[in-house]
Amino acid sequence: QVQLVESGGGLVQAGDSLRLSCAASGRTVSRFAMGWFRQGPGLEREFVAAISWIGGTIYYADSVKDRFAISRDIAKKMVYLQMNSLKPEDTAVYYCAAGGVWNMRDRSEYDFWGQGTQVTVSS
Q1: Long-range contacts from 75-81, C-beta under 8 angstroms, 24+ separation
Q2: Tens digits of per-residue pLDDT, 56-104?
Q3: Which residues contact 44 (CB under 8 A, 6 or more apart)?
């Protein structure tokens, strides 16, 4: 079993930065990729970024690839999402997830989810 706990969300102004953290636990967590997804008001949950524990393969959604950076600390079992130049359209609940073995961008591939952390960007 894998447990995920996100932190670091908050209310910021457009142009500001935030760093989200995801603490992962469980013996098998290193088998999975780690992804960040988000769900805005009235929207479906969408892919943001993903990273593999081994090798550090990274993918980004086009909407964030020049502004966000995903990273991981293997020893601490932590995954981070550095978000820069935030925009009001980045407002969403951000979820950390473990899974994505075959397709790191596919939400349906992820088996374990955190509770989410709210990010609100005011204009």
Answers
A1: 77/23, 77/24, 77/25, 77/29, 78/21, 78/22, 78/23, 78/24, 79/21, 79/22, 79/24, 79/34, 79/36, 79/51, 80/19, 80/20, 80/21, 80/22, 81/19, 81/20, 81/22, 81/36, 81/48, 81/49
A2: 899 999 999 999 999 999 999 999 999 999 999 999 999 999 988 889 9
A3: none
